[in-house]
Design a protein that fits this description.
The strands form two sheets. A seven-stranded mixed sheet has the order 10-7-9-8-11-12-13, with no helix packed on it. Strands 1, 2, 3, 4, 5 and 6 form a six-stranded mixed sheet that branches. The protein is elongated and about 60 Å long. The mean pLDDT is 94. The protein is 18% helix and 35% strand. A hairpin with a 2-residue loop joins strand 11 (182-186) and strand 12 (189-194). By secondary structure, the chain is of the alpha+beta class. It has two domains: 2-93, no CATH class; 104-202, no CATH class.
C-alpha cells in the first residue's frame, strides 16, 4: 500500500492506494489540487464524484484529512474505508475500455439501478443495451437480458451497479459506454460492442 500526501494551503490530504494504481492516483491528486485552487472547500465530510464512485474527505489528524471511499465489500451507502483502491481500479478499467472503443464516456454511478431479466446473470451469453439514463431516478439506462432465454415467464428485477463486481465482474468495464450502445457477452468475455450507428467498435 502506497501513501501520497497532497499539500494544500490549509490542510494536507493523505491518499492510500496500491502501487499498481499510482498513475490514477497521480491524476486524482492533480484534480484535487485544481479543485482547491478554484475555491472548492476541502474539509471533513465533503464528497467528490470520481467517475463511477464518490470519495469522501475525513479528518485524520492535526491539519490533515484522509481520502476515503465507500466500502463496496460491505455497505457502500453507509460504510467507508480509508483507502481508495476499489474506486481507482474500476475507473481505470472503464477509462481504458472507453478509449479502446473510441467513445466519450458517460458514467454509471455505483448506486445507479440496472434493470435485468431475473436470473440472466447466471447465463453465459448476455445482451446489454443502454438507453438515456434518468439521473433523477437513479436509473443507469442499462438493461441486461440473456441470449439463452427459453422461458415464457419473464420477470424483471433491479440491482445496483456496484453489485456487478460480485455477480459478473467482466461487464463492469462496459458501464462507461454512452446511450444507444449494445454489448454482447459470451462467458467471461466481452464479445462485441455496437454503437448507435450499428457499427461494431469492439470485437
Amino acid at each position: 500500500m502506497e501513501e501520497k500526501v497532497i499539500e494544500l494551503n490549509e490542510k494536507n490530504i493523505l491518499m492510500r492506494y496500491s502501487s499498481r494504481l499510482s498513475e490514477q492516483a497521480k491524476w486524482l491528486a492533480e484534480l484535487i489540487v485544481d479543485m482547491s485552487r478554484k475555491g472548492v472547500s476541502i474539509e471533513d465530510g465533503v464528497k467528490i464524484q470520481f467517475g463511477w464512485s464518490f470519495l469522501i474527505f475525513r479528518n485524520f489528524d492535526d491539519n490533515q484529512l484522509i481520502l476515503c471511499e465507500p466500502d463496496f465489500s460491505r455497505n457502500p451507502f453507509s460504510e467507508e474505508k480509508n483507502s481508495i483502491d476499489f474506486t481507482l481500479e474500476v475507473q481505470a478499467l472503464q477509462n481504458s475500455f472507453a478509449k479502446r472503443c473510441g467513445v466519450d464516456p458517460i458514467a454509471t454511478l455505483f448506486q445507479d439501478k440496472i434493470i435485468l431479466v431475473k436470473g440472466c446473470l447466471d447465463k453465459e451469453k448476455l445482451f446489454m443495451e443502454r438507453i438515456e439514463p434518468d439521473l433523477e431516478k437513479g436509473d443507469s439506462g442499462w438493461f441486461i437480458n440473456t441470449l439463452e432465454d427459453d422461458s415464457e415467464d419473464i420477470e424483471y428485477e433491479a440491482i445496483y451497479a456496484f453489485q456487478l463486481v460480485y455477480l459478473r465482474p467482466e461487464i463492469m468495464s462496459v458501464l462507461i459506454l454512452p446511450p444507444e450502445f449494445i454489448v454482447l457477452v459470451d462467458k467471461n468475455t466481452i464479445e462485441k460492442v455496437i454503437n448507435e450507428k450499428n457499427e461494431v467498435v469492439w470485437s
